[in-house]
Amino acid sequence: MKVKVIFSLFLLVAITSVNADLKVGYYNEICPQAEKIVREVVEEELGIPFYNVGVGPGLVRLLFHDSFVGGCDGSVLLGSPMDSWSEKSASKNIGLRGFEIIDKAKQRLEDSCRGVVSCADILVFAARDATQILLNANYGYIEFNVESGRLDSKVSFKDQVDSSLPAPEDNLEQLKNLFLSKKDITVQDLVVLSGAHTFGQSHCSSIKDRIYPSISDTLNERYGYYLRTRCPQYVPFDGVVDLDARTPYKLDSVYYQNVKNLTALFFSDWSMLTGDDTLPFVNEYAAPVNDWNIDFVESMKKLSRLNVITDPTNGEIRKICSKVNSY
User: Fold this and answer.
1) End-to-end Cα distance, the chain
2) Domain ranges, residue 293
3) Are residues 138 and 52 in the same domain?
4) Which residues of this protein are catalytic (predicted)?
5) Residue 274, annotated as binding a ligand
6) 65 is catalytic
């Protein structure tokens, strides 16, 4: 009986304390191994030293798509692509990956500290770990601490996705309207976070209007013909193409050189050349020596703070990341 009472009090403290602000090391007392466990799972999935090249881009994109739609609350994890109501089923979320990594980390954390670590925090930890590991491989060690103490959303709304996420065909004005509507997100953050297009892949359908029927004058002609070989016009399937043809598996600043050379994949990438406030940042990060990696870490931290839930009346700590507890 005494053990049950103590355990109940422990859970009460763990749950009620999330009303406090986010902080680095939030789980140090209530689940000391939390961040270590997530890190181990991410390293396993990355397959160090033989990288599973899709894991890093997948986790970074997953965090972005979660944070920009309603906030960093794990809502993108709810349901399945077959559920017509869930964010997963939205057209802009087709191809999202990394869900199984979050689920794997959640299961291990439930075995270690049942009912303590939120899925929203797990997603932040996982995206942070993948980013840090890949940046370290190119730039050397970089400190990347993130706050935790988020609760999970109880809802997920498909109809919020399209209006909340940028599209490959967006112009600079559309990008600014979207990014600058988020708390503390600046024009520099827009340019910095766009640098995530330095790794990962996109479906050919996202860029076919840039290469057919003619190659857009916003593209390097030779690069346009290369894209045609990767994305033939008349095929019965939607192929994929690397976002960065030069260093497709590295998290680096080569992307900005691509933007300047008109060899960046999306129209939205090119559009950053059109702004008096965005072009200086593109030039800065395209230089041989720059601080993009440091600035990317800071922008990722801002991303992880968007509209978080810390009030237990509005959120919960899910037992299973794809389901609310009352399911």
Assistant:
1) 30
2) 172-302
3) yes
4) 65
5) no
6) yes
CB count within 10 Å of CB 21 equals 10
Computed over every residue of the chain, the mean pLDDT equals: 92
**263 in the same domain as 293:** yes
Q: Please tell me the total count of domains within the chain.
A: 2
* pLDDT tens for each residue of 291-324: 999 999 999 999 999 999 999 999 999 999 999 9
Q: Is 269 annotated in some ligand binding site?
A: no
Residue 290 lies in a domain: yes
Does the residue 326 lie in any domain? no
Residue 194 CA to residue 204 CA, distance in Å, equals 19
Question: According to the annotation, is 252 in a ligand binding site?
Answer: yes
244 is in an annotated binding site: yes
Identify the pLDDT of residue 50: 63
Catalytic residue among 39, 61, 65, 106: 65
Q: What is the pLDDT of residues 211-268, one digit of tens each?
A: 999 999 999 999 999 999 999 999 888 999 999 999 999 999 999 999 999 999 999 9
